[in-house]
Amino acid sequence: MENVIEIVQRQAEDALQRLSALGIVTAERVAESVLRQTAYWEKPMPNDERLLFLRFFSPVIQREEVFLGNILFNAFLSKAFARAVAGNGPGRAELVANDLESYYFLVRTTSDVTHLADGFRAEVERCLPDLFFGDQDETRGIYGSLETMLDFDKANVEPFPIFIMPQVYADRLEKAVRASLLHKIEKSLLERNPTSIIANLAFFYSHDGAEMQSPYLFLARLAMRYGIVGADDLRQALNLNKGAELGDEAAVKKIIENSFKQKEGRTFSSTHLRRVLMQAVVNLGKMVDEQPDEWRMSYIRSKFLLHDENMLVDVLLDGVSLGYVTVSSPRKAVDVGCRICGVKTIEAEDKSILMGQNTHKFHNQSVKQKDKDKPKACLRCAVCTYLMVKLIGSEAVGQPQVPKTYNLIFHYGKHIDDEAKQLTHRIDLIWGLLRKHRDAEQVRQETASQVKALKEKVEREKDEQEKRALLADQAQKETELQQAQAKVVQAEDDIFAACPWLRDTGASATPAENCSLDALANIQLSEAKTERHVLGLGMGGYRMILFVLPQIRRDKKGHDFAQHRFSDSRVTVTALLSFLRQLCGCDGLYYYQSLPTLTPDAFQRDTFYVRNEPIGVQQAQQEYEVVTQLAWKLVGKRGSEGFVQKVVLAEKLLADPLGTFSNVMRDSAILGQNKGGYRRLPTTYRQDWRAYDLTEYARFIQKLSKLQEVK
């Protein structure tokens, strides 16, 4: 099995070969430089060329508010550097290895490091608008989409952070918003209240606070005051007669609101409403092009940054170094630093869309800054949070719009770009099968309840004619039950086909009886939106893969106990990591709540790193899989509450295997008891014994005994 030195050495050899520099330096020297975190060295080459070893460094803040966005920003910077080298005369950069903060390049060039740093800075400034507004392009390090940023339903709670963008980006932003709105209108079925679309219109194109506060009023004014949409077209969209009197703006606003919410007997026409919204976006675009001072984000224009692009780039590249050269001029020390990173100048407003639910709550600056509306974060942290929301989106928690929460799993393995996409497709397939199983199981349970109720009615019924009718209904429902059961079995067969290792290891394909499948089934995933991502960080070879998954859904009261229990439990985390490892099909490393680093103690193959504790794959299979399989078979409750109960039982079984299982057996309907707090394991009643056959219990006792011996 290769260790970290051998892996990096092989990567170095491949990079040297692509640069036609195998005779210039040895792969061993390059690998040694990576593991020692060497910043720079160079070797002469023919024709005035040189081979540079460069450590590209950009700091990562590990606070949850910015962590994911910081990773994405560094991926963008590293790829911008490779492009800058290629575009700066005859030069080429090859990535040898990387973690989250450091990217180690071999560069064949005629330029020196200072010249490369200048070219890199120019490339970042050129591509920064694409980072903010461009569609996903992993080859350029651009992730997410502006349309994801526009997924808000209220325009009055700062749902979009224009205050982190320079004024010069206003034109590019408006055009990107316009294109996104047209795409959103085109693909939307418009079967329900189109609140997101009209909230987007009101936020970016309103003229005053009243229009922003009420998107319904803004749409009314587009027809009645500004002539952006035709009054007759609006009547058709609201299912009103052609000559119907609309009244003043307040009356039209009320009609629009009731029609969209389908109140007081009013409705709307999806077909005509789509036409009206399309007309509004197109005509607003024309007005912006003809009268930009009047129509280009006139109400929110003052919120843009006063910085120009050059100053913004200087702020964003603060702390970034290329070999021994710092890319940005060092900034002065500050008395009160950013409340996220703690060191940089505060310039960004403390808004929920970036800083989450803890906005305006206690933090270090609150004792020094009495004005809660003053900036509290630096621009670099704010931009990192923007990139996170651009990828995974935001949600309304009460009034404010806040970034969505997520689980991050890092993986090192030998993967190309297409393999990362295939992993995404396989995860989507499994999620689809889990939904299919959930729906089939729900139908089966409902039908089984109906059959049970009919049987009870038959037993109580005295009238023979009524009993025959009930028996006929019962027979029909039993047929439906068999069909429903067949669909459940088919769904489980499909899960086995997609995850063949489950059958090989004796694991269940029923999500409620399988830890990893249950975790995936409980993840709060919307069927209509892309909320999971598998991203390849770095370029080619043995690279880092990032899994971005939504968190486990909250319970009915909004508590996130299930997510906390999952993330705090090594047992359940390793079960999910084992599942992803099987799905991936390689023996690489996985990290959860751990920082991937290129060091021998944190880079061992066939290892899971959970909160920086290494757990061998063999240990996970021998110890953790036993307790998770058993816990998920014994607890019958489903959903997030059932998930928590299973995690608690699994942790108890791991801590005291035989003692806990003894308590379980006493609280099960097997030893002469009619009731129990736990489900029975698969078993049969032996008439000759007048007792249950407990072979399955004996099998688990044997496994738990081995686990007890190990402990």
Descriptive keywords:
alpha+beta; six-stranded antiparallel β-sheet; 16 strands; 51% helix; 11% strand; six-stranded mixed β-sheet
Describe this structure in words.
With 711 residues, the protein is an alpha+beta fold. 51% of the residues lie in helices and 11% in strands. It is built from 26 helices and 16 strands. Strands 1, 2, 3, 4, 5 and 6 form a 6-stranded antiparallel sheet that branches. The protein has a 6-stranded mixed sheet with strand order 10-11-9-12-13-14, with helices on both faces. A two-stranded antiparallel ribbon has the order 7-8. Strand 1 (40-44) and strand 2 form a beta hairpin. Helix 6 packs antiparallel against helix 12, helix 9 (215-224) crosses helix 11 and helix 23 (617-634) runs antiparallel to helix 26 (695-710). The protein starts with a helix and ends with a helix.
Q: How far is the first residue's CA from the last residue's CA?
A: 27 Å
- What is the percentage of strand-forming residues? 5-15%
- In DSSP terms (H or I, runs of 4 or more residues), the helix count works out at 26
Radius of gyration: 30 Å
* Shape descriptor: flat
Give the helix/strand class. Answer: alpha+beta
User: Main β-sheet: number of strands, strand sense, barrel status?
Assistant: 6 strands, antiparallel
The overall pLDDT, averaged over residues, is: 89
Q: Helicity, in percent?
A: 40-55%
Number of E-type strands: 16
What ranges have pLDDT less than 50 throughout 5 or more consecutive residues?
A: none
